[in-house]
């Protein structure tokens, strides 16, 4: 690589790294989000250098259009095109990066020039009541793993917790008598979370079956634990919870790709369909803006339309 190009590459990488550190320190963004932003932005800066865009000031609306065209033609490691959702994440990361640069008095393309993809209602998956019941009743209670999994499923549907919030819970921070506890969500936003009586009972039952003194609320039970094993070594991981939920969804033949986030969607949708107001649901989910919570109203509005079509005018005169 030519010295001039090497210098520009180094400066771009340095600027991106400063932005990522800003996200981590100032915005308290999760490590996973920082990692994803790093991937998307490094793909963009590599494209810039490949197309003789040596400085951020070289990035204009036409360059962004060309980059998005490049993304639409990319293939993943399996030979499939990048999904529209993944392409959209690149645009979100780039806009956030430009907004940070503008905030720091850098003369770059206005972030408002980058149009973000619209949320597709069909991407919002959730379980109906019957599917929730089947999933919650799927673990076998004859083993401690089954009791743990039952408690996890009950807590997820009772609280709408993000999986990262769930696995970070510690025993001494969850008040099972008052059925509430605090969590720190995205962006360092704190909120109070409430457990249903049923969820609290299953968590207590799981804890009663444990003979250890490890701090994490949910731990792995495979492998040997002995003196000197740190609490964090026993903590269940987010990936383990994801695999567990998929396993039970397959077991009871639920035709939805069930993830912890689908459980979160199901929690919010269930509340709104039962008549909860949007602001309250926003607080319970830990959303910074109510506009994020409004995606659920599209689903509940469709439900209301179905009810209207099924029953309006059928009562006779």
From TrEMBL:
* Residue span(s) of domain Core-binding (CB): 10-102
Domain Tyr recombinase residue range list: 122-309
Q: Does the keyword DNA-binding apply?
A: yes
Q: Which UniProt keywords apply?
A: DNA integration, DNA recombination, DNA-binding
InterPro entries in UniProt: CB, DNA_brk_join_enz, Integrase-like_cat_sf, Integrase_catalytic, Integrase_recombinase_N, Integrase_SAM-like_N, Tyrosine_recombinase_XerCD
Single Gene Ontology BP annotation = DNA integration
Which Pfam family, any one of them, does this sequence belong to? Answer: Phage_int_SAM_1
GO molecular function per UniProt? DNA binding
Alphabetical list of CDD domains matching this protein = INT_XerDC_C (cd00798)
Write the protein's name.
Tyrosine recombinase XerC
């Amino acid at each position: 690589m030519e010295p001039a190009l090497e210098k520009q590459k180094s400066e771009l990488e340095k600027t991106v790294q400063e932005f990522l550190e800003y996200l981590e320190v100032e915005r308290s963004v999760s490590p996973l989000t920082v990692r994803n932003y790093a991937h998307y932005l490094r793909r963009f800066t590599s494209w810039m250098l490949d197309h003789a865009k040596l400085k951020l000031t070289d990035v204009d609306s036409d360059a962004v259009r060309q980059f998005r065209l490049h993304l639409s033609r990319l293939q993943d490691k399996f030979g499939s095109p990048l999904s529209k959702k993944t392409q959209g994440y690149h645009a979100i990361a780039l806009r956030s990066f430009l907004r940070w640069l503008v905030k720091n008095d850098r003369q770059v393309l206005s972030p408002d020039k980058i149009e973000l993809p619209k949320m597709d209602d069909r991407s919002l998956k959730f379980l109906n009541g019957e599917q929730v019941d089947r999933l919650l009743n799927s673990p076998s209670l004859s083993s401690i793993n089954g009791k743990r999994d039952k408690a996890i499923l009950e807590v997820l549907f009772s609280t709408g917790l993000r999986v990262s919030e769930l696995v970070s819970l510690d025993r001494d921070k969850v008040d099972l008598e008052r059925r509430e506890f605090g969590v720190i969500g995205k962006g360092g936003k704190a909120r109070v979370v409430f457990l249903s009586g049923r969820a609290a009972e299953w968590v207590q039952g799981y804890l009663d079956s444990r003979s250890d003194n490890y701090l994490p609320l949910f731990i792995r039970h495979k492998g040997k634990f002995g003196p000197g094993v740190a609490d964090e070594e026993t903590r269940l991981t987010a990936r383990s919870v994801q695999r567990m939920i998929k396993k039970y969804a397959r077991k009871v033949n639920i035709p939805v790709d069930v993830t912890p986030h689908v459980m979160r969607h199901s929690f919010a949708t269930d509340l709104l369909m039962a008549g909860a107001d949007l602001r309250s649901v926003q607080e319970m989910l830990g959303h910074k803006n109510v506009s994020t919570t409004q995606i659920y109203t599209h689903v509940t509005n469709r439900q209301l339309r179905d009810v209207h079509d099924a029953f309006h005018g059928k009562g006779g005169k």
